[in-house]
Backbone:
């Protein structure tokens, strides 16, 4: 898969009524482009209910994902920013990156880039500050490698 | 030294945690093997330490109860400062 997230998989919204809705919206590009089925979205939400909020990997950032399964057709990532933030079990999240992994290795390269990107907290804040997806794409192209 | 990075599925969050731990180890100049795994497979590994979410620590304590192992709760898997603090503690305990 491509290292980076395609612009067509990025969305910016003002607010969401809860984290479930945010995950559903964030997953939409993956659903519409046949990367995942609806079951995968439910599995990601169930995982938060079952395992708690550890998908909040950094302040303001969450990586919703579930176990590789039949519900994933292609490995891919999508991105959503929620300007006002949304509560995820006591953590405010403004940036969601949805990970759909078809198996346990195909996404490793992308995750390595993501891990490096996340360790600099300023990167997260800069993405959240963007008002246009083109600007988010530009930041990722420059700093996500 | 061997460290386990544990999450619910062993594919996403634990991979990020593993990379954060590796970065911390590099900064301390320490060599160690880091493996990411899911919670159900975790006890099958022999390791010196387990890094995982606070939500998993209770479960992990039961799984590793007969083993000499350090369990470190990590709230933010990509928070290098938080991870470094725990890695430092582990390194000190091995001295």
Residues:
């Amino acid at each position: 898969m491509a290292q980076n997230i395609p612009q067509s998989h990025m969305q910016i919204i003002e607010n969401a009524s809860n984290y479930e809705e945010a995950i559903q919206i964030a997953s939409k590009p993956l659903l519409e482009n046949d990367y995942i089925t609806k079951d995968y979205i439910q599995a990601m939400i169930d995982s938060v209910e079952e395992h708690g909020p550890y998908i909040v990997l950094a302040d303001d950032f969450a990586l919703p994902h579930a176990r590789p399964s039949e519900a994933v057709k292609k490995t891919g990532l999508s991105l959503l920013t929620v300007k006002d933030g949304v509560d995820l079990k006591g953590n405010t999240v403004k940036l969601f990156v949805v990970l759909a992994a078809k198996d346990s290795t195909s996404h490793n390269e992308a995750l390595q880039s993501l891990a490096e990107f996340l360790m600099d907290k300023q990167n997260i804040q800069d993405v959240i500050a963007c008002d246009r997806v083109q600007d988010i794409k530009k930041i990722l192209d420059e700093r996500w490698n | 030294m061997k460290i386990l990075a544990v999450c619910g599925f062993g594919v996403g969050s634990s991979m990020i945690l593993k990379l954060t731990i590796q970065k911390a180890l590099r900064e301390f100049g320490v060599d160690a093997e880091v493996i990411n795994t899911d919670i159900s497979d975790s006890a099958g590994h022999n390791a010196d330490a387990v890094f995982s979410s606070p939500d998993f620590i209770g479960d992990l304590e039961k799984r590793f109860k007969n083993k000499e192992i350090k369990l470190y709760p990590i709230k933010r898997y990509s928070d290098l400062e938080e991870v470094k603090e725990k890695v430092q503690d582990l390194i000190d305990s091995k001295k």
